[in-house]
Amino acid sequence: MGKPGLLDFAVQYSGIIGVFVTVLIALIGMFHYLSMKRAEERGRQYDRYHKLLEDLNASPRGDAPFIDRQVAVVYEMRNFPEYYPVTLRILERSMPRWESLRKLSASVPGSVNTLYEEAQLTIKFIKRRQLEMQYFLIAEEDR
Fold first, then answer.
1. How close are the terminal C-alpha atoms of the chain, in Å?
2. Residue pair 126/88 in contact by the 8 Å Cβ criterion
3. CB atoms within 10 A of CB 79
4. Among residues 108, 114, 109, which one has the least CA distance to residue 68?
5. Number of H helices, E strands in the chain
6. Which tens digit of pLDDT belongs to each residue from 56-94?
7. Alpha-carbon gap, residue 102 to 116, rounded angstroms
8. Count of CB atoms within 10 A of residue 81's CB?
9. Are 85 and 141 within 8 A, CB to CB?
10. Is the pTM of this model over 0.70?
11. Which of 56, 94, 92, 59 is nearest to 73 (CA)?
């Protein structure tokens, strides 16, 4: 007798091959499902983050937003790690304006402007998280 051929191998191990093919197809389906869910979640995160930015800069009526709402928005920005680089740029760019508002509000008895302080805390939080997440793996031009 000659060497066993591919057909003999397939016949002898047909059960194992069938299970392997079934598992492979199930894994491909699961990967496709998870990648679609991940894309949907990224879309929702994108919408939520941009809604936060809108809330930070203006109220639905077009007038200035309430300070407490702005403080809450700055705090919530911590929950979007994929946007940390742009969040830092936005907050750091806004800090001089918020600091001047803080100084103005300090002259009014009984008023407290904590937006500046919350932004400082959020910046510290994000920078600490970036170090923890090994942020250096992201190319400089993508930051």
1. 66
2. yes
3. 11
4. 114
5. 5, 0
6. 776 666 666 677 778 888 988 998 888 899 999 999 999
7. 7
8. 13
9. no
10. no
11. 56
Question: What is the residue whose two structure tokens read 């591919």?
Answer: 6
Establish how many alpha carbons lie within 13 A of residue 62's alpha carbon, considering only the half-sphere containing its beta carbon.
0
pLDDT in the model for residue 8: 84
Give the C-alpha separation, 100 to 20, whole Å.
66
Alpha-carbon gap, residue 62 to 54, rounded angstroms = 10
- Please name the amino acid found at residue 111: S
d(Cα 43, Cα 48) in Å, to the nearest integer? 9
Q: Which residue has the tokens 């170090």?
A: 131
